[in-house]
Design goal:
Length: 571
């Protein structure tokens, strides 16, 4: 019996055991990612991810080079204090990217690690490094290094100050981002909080555009604009002492003091900026330690209560309908399944503020740029151009139709319904959103300039309908072959997989190029009358493709349901 006793546990947790845990997590993430490539469509997903990274790197080059050149110019002309504009610009740009792009997703939910014998400190470090390589964080690091290089090239003697200062600034910004998003997940754990947050972001964005967009202020007198400029300058001088005490101001002050040979003060400013970073890290650790002890951020955990359950139990049960779900029809000749699924999709849209914000954000940008272009040019081309941009928020939605339903997708295959009715109900929501976007673009252009020509409205609507139908047809196939589970309580979720998002954007760009080519040819050869019939024919082709897709979607879904369930049912 003595041989059956377990060996005594070590009295202290060693560094070697902690390193072994980190190595195991790294190996686990690599294995999940590598095994995912062996599944059907894994090569395409890898191509989509590589192409997305390539595009992101190309887009990072321009701001990085521009910021570095600006830093060199300011340093070469003894205007070190102007570096604060660059640093505050980097900070603002990173936050805008974080709001619009979010944090990158992970191959598995890191909260699953709390079931293993981890220490709180180890869990905090793991959560810190998960999602560290977001586009905004990479932008902060590259632009910070570009500023350091620009200053060093202009004044080589400052390299021992500029480089550490900018590295600390970059680390502080990254820690601030991680801290904010950790708390945003906590604040957005309820549906009401997500709705309020979306309303605030939309109001601020729209108010900013209305206030500073010259398209809506060009009719004001010059003295009014000068008055506003004076007010802005006064507010800046009032806020300048506070801005100097924040990380961007401290970083600039350290370089300025270093240029004046006040080395001790320069390093003290760098240390003060580092203290901000430690404070952000401490707040992040507080949030993740609460998560480590089992906090549940789901809507169910925040809504369901014993009182609610007791009140619900006193209600009389709802009698079940006697008619089979998939056979009853309504006055439109469609199955009741279609309108039931359509109603459910409307509830998803109303409760998922992430999707709602994705629909509103393009409208805000159209409101901005359409107003500027309407002041200088004719609005004949504005309607189709703005329409193509507005559809960017609609296109990815159809490529992951079951992402929000997760494991509940299995009931569609168990219930006595046709899958084509399910897809039709989901697609009707996409079409409705497309028409809402069309109406919103038309109203915006009418407000900022004048109504587009009637013929151009017909061209734009026909093109939008045809493009939306083609995108929905391909999106239905991708929803089955490459689904992606979405957690609405997390800010790091994307609507579709990288390849699906790339395909939706590619189809939209090809369709836009086709429409632009038709318009240009019609203008060159003075045959504008044939443009509208061509676009109507294009919409008819899109409708034919969509109807053919619906006829084959049942068989396509049944043959690929196992892989679909594997992805959507995973925890």
């Amino acid at each position: 019996m003595a041989q059956l006793s377990t060996p005594p546990l070590p009295e202290r947790w060693t560094v070697r055991q902690t390193n072994a845990q980190y190595a195991a997590i790294v190996q686990l993430r690599w294995s999940i990612w590598a095994n995912g490539l062996r599944r059907r469509g894994g090569g395409g997903e890898l191509f989509g991810r590589i192409f997305t990274i390539f595009v992101a790197v190309v887009l990072l080059i321009l701001p990085t080079v521009g910021v570095g050149a600006g830093a060199w110019y300011f340093a070469a002309h003894d205007d070190m204090k102007l570096l604060s504009f660059l640093l505050w610009g980097i900070f603002a740009m990173s936050q805008l990217l974080n709001i619009n792009l979010g944090q990158p997703g992970t191959t598995f939910n890191p909260t699953e690690l709390i079931r293993f014998p981890l220490r709180v400190r180890s869990y905090v470090w793991i959560r810190l490094f998960f999602g560290l390589l977001s586009p905004a964080n990479v932008l902060v690091v590259t632009t910070s290094l570009a500023i350091a290089i620009g200053v060093i090239v202009a004044v080589p003697a400052l390299w021992t100050y500029a480089l550490p200062a900018m590295l600390v600034f970059a680390a502080t910004n990254v820690l601030f981002t991680r801290m904010v998003f950790a708390w945003v997940d906590r604040w957005m754990s309820t549906r009401r909080a997500r709705e309020v947050f979306t309303a605030i972001i939309f109001t601020i964005s729209l108010g900013f555009q209305v206030t500073f967009n010259p398209a809506y202020t060009h009719h004001l007198k010059r003295h009014v604009s000068s008055h506003r400029l004076a007010i802005a300058e006064h507010l800046y001088h009032r806020a300048e002492p506070v801005m100097r005490a924040l990380p961007p101001g401290l970083t600039v002050s350290s370089i300025v003091f270093a240029e004046q040979n006040q080395r001790a003060i320069a390093y003290a400013e760098i240390a003060a900026c580092a203290c901000f970073g430690l404070l952000f890290l401490a707040v992040f650790a507080l949030r993740t330690s609460t998560e480590f002890h089992g906090e549940n951020l789901s809507d169910v955990a925040n809504v369901v209560s014993a009182k609610h359950l007791g009140r619900r139990s006193r209600h009389a049960p709802v009698p079940a309908t006697s008619a089979p779900l998939g056979r009853s029809t309504n006055s439109f000749g469609m199955s009741s399944t279609v309108f039931t699924v359509f109603g459910k999709e409307f509830l998803y849209l109303r409760r998922n503020t992430g999707l709602f914000y994705g629909l509103i954000a393009p409208m805000v940008m159209v409101f901005l740029f359409a107003g500027r272009l309407a002041v200088r040019t004719s609005n004949e081309w504005l309607f189709p151009t703005a329409l193509a941009y507005a559809l960017m928020g609609i296109a990815p939605l159809a490529y992951n139709s079951f992402g929000l339903e997760g494991a509940g997708t299995q009931f569609y295959f168990l219930a006595p319904v046709r899958l084509r009715d399910v897809f039709l109900g989901k697609n009707l929501m996409s079409l409705l959103l497309a028409f809402v976007e069309i109406a919103a673009v038309l109203i915006i252009l009418t407000y900022v300039a004048s109504p587009p020509p009637l013929e151009m409205i017909g061209v734009g609507v026909s093109w939008a309908v045809g493009t939306t139908l083609v995108n929905i047809s391909i999106g239905n196939l991708r929803s089955v072959s490459a689904p992606k589970k979405i957690d609405p309580n997390r800010t790091a979720n994307k609507q579709a997989s990288p390849l699906s998002a790339l395909m939706s954007l590619g189809i939209l760009l090809v369709a836009a190029a086709f429409a632009a080519g038709v318009l240009i040819v019609g203008h060159i050869f003075a045959v504008q009358r044939v443009v509208l019939p061509i676009m109507v024919a294009y919409a008819a082709v899109g409708l034919f493709v969509y109807l053919a897709n619906l006829k084959s979607i049942d068989r396509f879904s049944m043959t690929r349901r196992e892989g679909m369930f594997e992805e959507l049912c995973k925890r």
